[in-house]
What does this fold into?
Amino acid sequence: MPEKLSRVMAIMPHPDDAEFGAAGTIARWVKEGKEATYVVCTNGDKGSSDPDMTSERLAIIRRREQTEAARVLGVKEVVFLDYPDGWLEDTPDFRGKLVRLIRKYQPDIVMTTDPYRKYMWHRDHRITGVVALDAIFPYARDRLSYPEHIAEGLPTHHVREIYLWGAEDPDTYVDVTNTFELKIAALTCHTSQIGARIETLRERIRERCEKVGQSHGCSLAETFRRIVIPY
It folds into this structure.
């Protein structure tokens, strides 16, 4: 991240998505003095195969896990929108909530899931990516869009760059050699989702990061599709 870009916001569909997709990069930027904010769109209340688990209990557990994972990474604040897992829709209400948060926190960079993967992709991921991109441009920029925010004292905001994780055609590679262990530590917080699989996941994620990193001059790297927004 260039020196002049000092604030980053990660908009994720479910608790743990940012840890899988971008935690090494987020941890690196935080160590470099950048300020990070998380926006968690759903409460993750469907992510369990345990026959004794309820959606109500799971939502509480996953909020706690995400809060702890953010603490491990040094994320300054976590905002929970608490939509039900699997039920995100591209609506003016959802878009307006993201626009409001972008105007409130004024991020230079927004990270989110790439909505344009082919064929199989969780609906919440697709919807989150689309709505986040629309919220960034043009809605957060335009004064006459969601004017109630302006009445609250929230100015319009121009996001400078977007980093999409999960992209099938990435063009940006971030060296996470020194923050890979923080990424794994943050993932470990999501016990309800990972449980005893952490070592298997660790090796799988390391292999993927090594493959990318070694072809781009470092040991371990995360990949993104990067969009620079001209104004």
User: Anything to note?
Assistant: The helical segments are 17-31, 55-73, 92-105, 123-139, 147-151, 180-188, 191-194, 198-214.
